[in-house]
Amino acid sequence: MYQCPNCGGQLRFNIPTQQLACENCRSEFDPYQISREKDAEEESFYDVTVFKCPQCGGEIVSSDNTAANFCTFCGASTVLTSNLRKEKRPGYIIPFTKTKEDCKKAYAKHMRRAWFAPKELKDSRFIDSFRGIYMPYWAYHITEEGPVSLSASRSYRRGDYIITDKYSVTGDINSSYKGISYDASSSFDDQLSQSIAPYDVRNMNRFTPSYLCGFYADTADVDPDTYTPEAVDIAATKTYDYVRTHTELGAVSLDETASSAKSKFNPKCKAVDGAMFPVWFMSYRNKDRVAYATVNGQTGKVVADMPVSISKYIISSLILAIPVFMLLNAFLTLLPSTTLGLSAIVAALVCFLYSSELNQIMNRDMPDFPGNKQSGRYNGNGKTNDGTVYYNTPGQNSYNRKNKSKKNSSGAGAIAVILFTFAFILFSFFTAIAGDLGIFRLVTYVAVILSIAGSAASIKPYSVVTGRHMPATFITMAAVIIAAVVQFTAPVSDLFYYAGTILCLAAVIILLLGVIKYYNVLSTRKLPQFSNYSGGDDRA
Fold first, then answer.
1. pLDDT digits (tens, 9 = 90+) for 278-295
2. Which residues contact residue 534 at a Cβ distance below 8 angstroms, ignoring those fewer than 6 apart?
3. Residues 6 or more apart from 289 whose CB is under 8 A from it?
4. 352-367 core/surface letters (b: 16 or more CB in 10 A; e: else)
5. Residue 8 CA to chain centroid, in angstroms?
6. Helix or strand or coil: residue 273?
7. End-to-end CA distance of the chain
8. Are 5 and 37 in contact (CB under 8 A)?
9. CA–CA separation, 189 and 435 (whole Å)
10. Domain ranges for the chain
11. Which is it for strands 131-158 and 161-183: parallel, antiparallel or unpaired?
């Protein structure tokens, strides 16, 4: 804790003035001046208070020792245990430039478009729980030096001939990329860190613990070597793009591909520095799920998990259905067979939507899902007067280094279903012409095939996600088959058609409620459990 030299009051970092301000006498001090007075010797470590959640085991650190009464990671309202520890000093820090009020305004503006979000997410008391956290990053300094020779060519037409001249483009490279950054905490989800990018790394300051006054920080627990190959590749790719588009080449174009040219630039990782980037962080807990809202503490960019309130969705749908029904009833008359065919095809398509969400949940919860900390991302760019490029650009390098994506074994089955469906459509089309079945009877028969395919595709993910073996798509498939039987038998009474339509629409409602349920699973996260904490893994 840093105390005011004048009155002994607690100092906190004041974002608008970028100074340390005393809570009592309102005096302000330069962060580096206070650090020099408190820390006479520059050390590799600094003292922090470590707060640990008794429920999930998550840890955050602070230079203050005031009690923390809720957990950032799992959203639990509980007093966190605390102890003192030494942490390794990062090299740089980007101070907060957006105040908590700025953060709340940006979040409230973002939530205006979230019509179906739970009311708690828009409650002012909930929004007030945003917490300022410095997230750790690794900042890489990549250099490229030495002679380079690249093959190039220029083609032009002369009479009936196309003439190609070959060239060798030679020169000396002396490039420097500083600030290629990747988040270094496994408790900070990769998708969140990538989404709130970019940061302007040109505004990094030399780190001093006094910047943490009034804020929290996460710890770096990801090995910096994890991202070194990606950082080197980013620098080499930028150099290649610069050379390829340089105006001095004129009509001459490089024959070298990016992969073959990059190795000739001799890129090297000169240094890796720890850095801290500012994030306003808030968690929303609902039973066994948690949603996060994050705001870039430098730019104000907002990224939030957005679950849907089922009650809001149902009420809005019912209200919207009334004018839609009146308009259709006034301007459009549908035959019973037409209504049945349309409801059947809608039910079949919702089957695929339901199955798709289950597959996304299954793939996300597998160990090789790209949200783990082997997934790289980088984020901002800039250039200084000395020619050093500060490069940190969002989201073009997100992939899993350690676990390559497994080959999709269902591809052959999907192709077989498509071919079979196409063949059946042709068969049904000619049957319809010959037997005068009508286009909407054909649509109903196609819906049968699609619902069977969608139901089959949902069996495995449903079993993995829920542990059960009878997905709701089976109800929809049964309703669509009944609709097809009605279309095939062509009863005289319209009541059979309407009964089939009601069955299909009821199945659609059941599936849509399931779709919303699984959407909320996709838009929220499991409660984290950090055992033997070293930053943690939010998939645990």
1. 999 988 888 778 888 899
2. 186, 219, 221
3. 307, 520, 521, 524, 525, 526, 527
4. bbbbebbbbbbbeeee
5. 44
6. strand
7. 33
8. yes
9. 59
10. 43-307, 310-364+410-522
11. antiparallel
Residues with Cβ within 8 Å of 187's Cβ and at least 6 positions away in sequence, in order, are: 58, 73, 218, 221, 528, 530, 535, 536, 537, 538
Joined together, the tokens standing for residue 318 give 């019912």
Q: What is the CA radius of gyration of the chain?
A: 30
Which residues neighbour 415 within 8 Å (Cβ) at sequence distance 6 or greater? Answer: none
d(CA 201, CA 223): 21
**Digit-coded pLDDT (tens) for 467-524:** 888 888 899 999 999 998 988 888 888 899 889 989 988 998 888 888 888 888 888 8
Residue 121 has pLDDT above 90, yes or no: no
Q: Which residue has the tokens 């005096």?
A: 27
Q: How far is CA 246 from CA 152, 242, 243, 257, 359, in A?
A: 13, 6, 5, 16, 45
Identify the bridge partners of residue 86 per DSSP, sorted by sequence position. 47
Map residue 423 onto helix, strand or coil.
helix
DSSP 76-94: --SPPEEEEEEEEPPSEE-
- Pick 436 or 346 by higher pLDDT: 346
> What phi and psi, each to the nearest 5 degrees, are found at residue 339?
-60, -40
CB-neighbour burial class of residue 58 (10 A; exposed 0-12, middle 13-18, buried 19+) = buried
Give the span between the Cα atoms of 373 and 540, in whole angstroms. 12
CA–CA gap between residue 364 and residue 371 (Å, rounded): 8
Q: To which H or E segment does residue 444 belong?
A: helix 439-466
3-state secondary structure 100-163: HHHHHHHHHHHHCCCCCCCHHHHCHHHHCCCEEEEEEEEEEEEEEEEEEEEEEEEEEEECCEEE
User: Any idea what DSSP says for residue 455?
Assistant: H
- The amino acid at 491: P
Residue 524 identity (one-letter amino acid): T
Distance CA 269, CA 37 (A): 35
Q: Please tell me what DSSP assigns to residue 260.
A: H
